[in-house]
Amino acid sequence: MGNHDTSELVRGTKGKRSCLIRNCTERCRSLGKIEWDEWQYSSNRIDNQWRRVEENMPNTATLQREAAVNVYRSVEQGLKDTGAGTCGLMFIHCGGVQAQPEQQVRNYLEQTSEFAFQLWKDGATQTLAVLLPGLTLNEVHYEGLRIKHELQETVPGAEPQITLASFKDSERPSQATIQHMAESAKLVDPSEIHIYTLDKTADEPGRILIVDNDPTVREFLQLRLKMQGYETYEAVDGLAALELIEKVSPDLVLTELNLYGIDGLPFIHHIQNLEVEQPPKIVVLTEQRVEQTISQCFRSGVDDYMTKPFSPVELDARIRRCLH
Q: What separation in angstroms does the CA of 232 have from each of 92, 107, 179, 210, 244?
C-alpha cells in the first residue's frame, strides 16, 4: 500500500467511524434506558476497535523515510548482484515538472536499449535511480545524453539534471555514497551531465579554501565543490584567508590574485611561509592573463593556474589532479 493509499485509509476510517456512530445515535434516541445503555456499550467497542486500527497504521512521514532507505539498499544490493565487472549508475532529476518522468524513462530504455537495467524512484530526493550492469563510464555517459535528449523532446518544460558513474566490482559504493549521489543530482547544472567518482566522498574529504572578493564567484564555487563532497571555506581577502589557513589547515587554496589588502605574489609567499604542518596546494583562478605573472606564479610554487572565464569541468579535473 502506497503512502497516498495509507493516508486516504486513515481519513476514510475516521469518516466511517464518525458517520456510523452518528447515524446509530440518531436512530437510538427513542430507545429506552436499557436499550440505550446497550447501544452505548456497543458504540464504545466500535470506537475502540477503530482507534486500534488507526494506531497500527504507519505514519506517512515514517513511510517516506523508510521507502528512501529501501531504495538506497536496493541499489546497493543491485550493484552487488551484478557480480564481476563494471556497473553503471545514474540518478536523474527533472526540474520544471510536477512529477518525475519514471514511466517515460522506463519505456525509453525498454524500447531502445539492448542491455538489462533496473529503475527505482527515490521519493526523498525526487530522483530516478537507473542501474546499468556491465556499462563502462563512457557507455553510461552516452546513455545519459540519450535520456536527457529524450526527456527534453517529450516532456514539456523538463530540465533534466543527471549525475552518473561506473563502478568496478572492487569499489562498489555504500548506501551513504548512493544517497549522496542522489542528492547531488539536484545540484547539477541542467546544461551539463555530472560525472561522479568515489574519491569525492572519502571518509576525510578534501578541505578547500575559496578566496575571491566576488560573492557570486564564491557562491558558485562553494556549491559546486560541496556537491562533489569537498569541505569548503571562503574568504573575501588575503588577510582573512591567511587567518583561516592557520585555523582550518585546508588541503587546497583556490584563489584570485586581485584581492584587497594583500594580493598577488606576496599573498602566495605568505601562504607558503605560514607555520602549518602541511602547506596547502595552491590553484590560482584569476582574471590576470599576463604571461609574466603566470610564469612568476609557477616559479613561486603555485600548483596550477586558470584564467576567467573558466570551464567548471576543467577546474574540477585540475583540483582532483592537485589533491590526488
A: 25, 40, 20, 7, 11
